[in-house]
GNAT family N-acetyltransferase
Amino acid sequence: MITYLKHEQLDKAKWDACIMASADNMVYALSWFLDVVAPAWQGLVEELGGAYVTVMPLPGITKMSFPYLSQPYHTHQLGVFTTAQSSSGIRKEMLELAVKRFRFIHNYRFNMSDTSTLETLQGKYELIGRYTRYLILDKPYQALYKSYTRDRKMNLKRAQRANLSMFESDDIEPLIQHFKIHIEHKVVGGVAESTYQMLRELFKVMQEKGVAQLIYTTAGGEVNAGCLFIKYNGVISYAFNSADSEGRVTNGRTLVLDEIIRQYAGTGYTLDFESPMIEQIDHFYASFGAHKVKYFALRHNALPFYVKVVRAIRMKVYRALFASGVAEEV
């Protein structure tokens, strides 16, 4: 039997035990991660013998008196997490319950173990196929390097000739400030200060849990690129990054990614580039020899007609204002 539990009803010890026993034991679904990115998160739970055997995180909120479900910032994938004790057909059942509970669902992203089940449900739900890029670090560095494209090898040599300084840090603030100055204006709608504060809090907790790795490159003492990685359960997630024009010209992020590949070569770790559906960025990640892995995102809109109209008008105005304000800067 599946139970919907509000945040205060969840047993987080049982929750985390279920996540860690699942095939897709992802950091994003652990209670301490969700507590930062979606403080009032809820969940669907299948319980057996006093233990949670299947869970589905629901980072839902209420807007205009209607329940909304969306993917929190800094959270690549969620979905249904199953164990050996999970019931047959549990993924389908939890998806059905989530759609019934939330009138509006925007870009809720499922994990890879959900993919085969969701493939069969595309005719019933608005499930959008997406891809990330994986690079399996199971070979010596030189073997991994051979899989780089010719252009990536050339750009790596340029980065090495640029004499960039590269160092690890426990200070997230330079990365945040760098992103604010050089990247934020390219983000549709900008970035709220609360989102940056969330990243500060998340980085602090990740440091406490020992899963964060932050690397900067500098030229002349000034940061020109920074990359934040999350290391958990054999996966290194490329979680957040920033580069200015100099960092792009000197290939600072190429230097950092190559360093991560060098550090973890032969360990069996998987480097997840968390690739967005943007051709230029996907091409960049593919140039390291990374392959595509499919997952699904869910959309659902059962809002009343008048709410749909108001929302559509707001989004149209929003995009028009953004296009006019940013066109001169990019």
